[in-house]
Structure formats: C-alpha cells, structure tokens
Amino acid sequence: MNNIYTDPSTNTLKWCLNFDAIERTFPETIRHHIKPCHWKGPRKVIIGGKSKFTSPQRVAVDYPLIFDDFKIDRDLLVFKDSAHFVYAKEPERFTQEVANFIQKTKE
C-alpha cells in the first residue's frame, strides 16, 4: 500500500496521502458534482490556520462554488494556532464560537 508508511521517529504506521495531487485536482474532480446551494441563511466555516487539509485560500476558491453568496470575511473563522481538528485543539473556544454564532442567528 502506498498510503501507509512507518514513521522512523516513533516506529508506528502513519497515513500518507498525496495532498498536493488532491489539492491540484480538487476543482476539476468535484466541479461536475457541485450544485449551487440556495441556502441564503447564516453560515460559519471554521478551519485551523495550520491545517494540512484546507486554508483560507482554498476556502476562498471552493466555497463560492457551493454557496452563491459566500463571503470569506463574513463566513470564515480561522483558528490560527490550530491544525485541522480545531474542536480538539481549542474545545472551549470552538464551543464558544459556535454558541455565539447560534445566538446571533436567533436575534
């Protein structure tokens, strides 16, 4: 298998995915599957600033393909010190941000 390797520092198996290829081909791969979302209500995309899976630049390219009215300054929140799993790295902040977002949608 090409997607598993042994980490020499820990002598444990790790996943190894070709993220460069996935990122390079993502728009072409999903373009024919995406239908515009007609949800015009509030949304919040939360990502980690150190994520290997996404970035503000990726969000700026991909999300407007999904949401017609996506605005990065309004709809994106970046936890700059977290990687991909922001809820695990900063659970209190994550919970507070989600609670604040829900509260604002009720107003």
Rounded mean pLDDT is 85
Q: Report the total helices.
A: 5
Q: How many strands, which pairing sense, and closed or not: the largest β-sheet?
A: 2 strands, antiparallel
Shape: flat
The residue fraction in helices comes out at 40-55%
Distance between the termini: 52 Å
The oligomeric state is: single chain
Question: What can be said about this structure in brief?
Answer:
The chain has 107 residues and is α+β, with helices and mostly antiparallel strands. It is built from 5 helices and 4 strands; from the N terminus they run ββαβααβαα. The chain has one domain (4-32, 41-106).
Fold and architecture overview:
The chain is of the alpha+beta class. It has one domain. The chain is built from 5 helices and 4 strands, in the order E-E-H-E-H-H-E-H-H. It has helices spanning 19-31, 56-66, 72-75, 86-89, 91-106, and strands at 4-7, 12-15, 45-48, 76-79. The protein has a two-stranded antiparallel sheet with strand order 1-2. Strands 3-4 form a two-stranded parallel ribbon. The radius of gyration is 17 Å and the shape is flat. The mean pLDDT is 85.
Name the descriptors.
about 45% helix, alpha+beta, two-stranded antiparallel ribbon, about 110 residues
Give the topology.
Blueprint: E1 4-7, E2 12-15, H1 19-31, E3 45-48, H2 56-66, H3 72-75, E4 76-79, H4 86-89, H5 91-106
Parallel strand pairs: 3-4
Antiparallel strand pairs: 1-2
